[in-house]
Amino acid sequence: MRPSFGKIIARELVTTMPTAKSILLSPQTKAFANWIETHVPFVRQWHRFAYEEHFFRVAKWDRLFHGVYPDFDTAAKAIPKRFNFGYDNADAATFLGQNASVRSSDYPVLFWLNRLLPENNRILDFGGYLGISYRAYKPLLSYPPDLTWTIYDVPAVVAKGKELLASHPDPRLSFTTNFAEAADADVLLAAGSLQFCERDFSEYLADLPRLPRHLLINKTPMTDGEQYVTLHSMGVALTPYRIFQQKQFIDSLAKLGYRLIDQWKNEDFACIIPFELDKSVNAFSGMYLTLEESARK
To answer: Which CA distances in Å does 297 have to 181, 185, 209, 210?
Structure first.
């Protein structure tokens, strides 16, 4: 029996779809589309309007970005008042859940944690949400019996985290809104959290009476150009989202006594800002720094 015309078309679509997708996403196609929008202003105006309508709508988790702003405060003022702001609200505090699979971007952190444990068994997880990294890494690392893993986060997240611990106790895990507890940490882990903060990371650390000996930074958007802020839609909330100037970021930590040991790229994370492609970040960054002996207190 000969296949129907519909089946032939379906088979051809499946066969050619990867090729078609690669063509649509190719630099040449993007350059052509940009040429059209540049020479036909109405097309760009309509495209921008359509995207803004899509962005400023509470929807599912899509990792959407919009706009370029000089600082955190300016970006914050661009968020309509009808939206949840950031993670400090009931919706944003729970929508990601407490479990996640390990991604390729996690393996550099796993490598260094494996070397640092168990001699450095006090971890401060900066913006660690409901314990996503703690639970994801647990099957792959040998957590020492005396490990303490403290998650520092906003009040709404910490309240939910403590609620979960009340029903499912874990003596290694705790939650706090007090960053001063980082002074007791051996390792400070910041995996995908620093971009949500209004203050520079170095300012947080400078307030501590004792600096953590090791810093593990991961899933952080960085650029070689100027630092800026964009808006990020989490579906349940909008938030300013910082893009760090990489050298400036590292230099600010060097002034505190930290020495860069390792760097890597997170190819599975990107910040693509429509209409601002020259500001987009195609891969996030990670790094490991250790405190120089002369800077330890």
So the answer is: 15, 13, 8, 6
Percent of the chain with pLDDT over 90: 68
Q: Which of 101, 154, 104 is nearest to 129 (CA)?
A: 154
Tell which phi-psi region holds residue 6, choosing left (phi > 0), alpha (psi between -120 and 50) or beta: alpha
Distances from the Cα of 241 to the Cα of 246, 272, 280, 287, angstroms = 15, 12, 12, 19
Q: By three-state DSSP, how is residue 122 classified?
A: strand
Q: Residue 35: what pLDDT? A: 59
Q: Report helix, strand or coil for 237.
A: coil
> What is the fold of 104-295?
Rossmann fold (3.40.50)
Is 173 within 8 Å of 165 (Cβ atoms)? yes
Other Cβ atoms less than 10 A from the Cβ of 4: the count is: 9
pTM (2 d.p.): 0.81
Q: What amino acid occupies position 33?
A: A
Asked whether residue 6 carries a pLDDT value surpassing 90, the answer given is: no
**Rg, Å, the chain Cα set:** 22
pLDDT tens digit sequence for 32-54:
666 566 655 554 565 555 566 55
pLDDT, average across residues 60-79: 88
How confident is the model over 187-201, as pLDDT tens digits?
999 999 999 999 999
